[in-house]
Amino acid sequence: MPLLHRYRVFISHAWHRHEGYDRMIQFLNDAPLFIYSNYSVPQDKAFEGMNNSKLVEQLKNQIRPVEAVIILGGVYVSYSNWIQFEIDFAKSLNKPIIGVKPWGAQRMPQAVTDSANTIVGWNTYSIIQAIRQYAI
């Protein structure tokens, strides 16, 4: 079997609204012939008592080494300031952005549509193909 590339990804999310993040992790974990390193910090390791400037530095440190940034469209609506920062920082580093349509019938936020290299649905195959195609 050929050696697989380990993709470095950052998945944008909110710690107190983590259902979409958990679903994305499950999709990536279950994907056949796909390995990755998750550079985002999950809810169970959330930073406690951190001020905004320290959180900005932590987010930058998480995004710098990745090959792709995944933005969950449904979370953007509620947490647009932080997620917009992640989008803007990723773009400043020329990181590819993969937008994932909100689960269900919700519309994709325009800010994500305007920034993403591609938009995919909640489908393991589509997500993995986008990471493989756009990761730098």
What does this structure look like?
This protein is α/β, with parallel strands linked by helices and 136 residues long. The protein has a single domain, classed as Hypothetical protein MTH538 (Rossmann fold), CATH 3.40.50. 43% of the residues lie in helices and 16% in strands. A five-stranded parallel β-sheet has the order 2-1-3-4-5, with helices on both faces. Helix 2 crosses helix 4. The longest helix has 13 residues. The mean pLDDT is 88.
How would you summarize the topology of this molecule?
Elements: E1 6-11, H1 19-30, E2 35-38, H2 52-63, E3 68-72, H3 73-76, H4 80-92, E4 97-100, H5 110-115, E5 118-120, H6 124-134
Parallel strand pairs: 1-2, 1-3, 3-4, 4-5
Descriptive tags:
single chain; alpha/beta; Rossmann fold; five-stranded parallel beta sheet; 6 helices; 5 strands
The second-level CATH architecture is 3-Layer(aba) Sandwich
Oligomer description:
single chain
Could you name the CATH homologous superfamily? Hypothetical protein MTH538
Mean pLDDT over all positions: 88
For the largest beta-sheet, the strand count, sense and barrel status come to: 5 strands, parallel
Helix content: 40-55%
Number of helices: 6
Span of the ends, CA to CA = 23 Å
By CATH, the topology is Rossmann fold
The poorly predicted ranges are none
| Overall tally of domains | 1
Q: What percentage of amino acids are in beta strands?
A: 15-25%
Write down the Rg: 14 Å
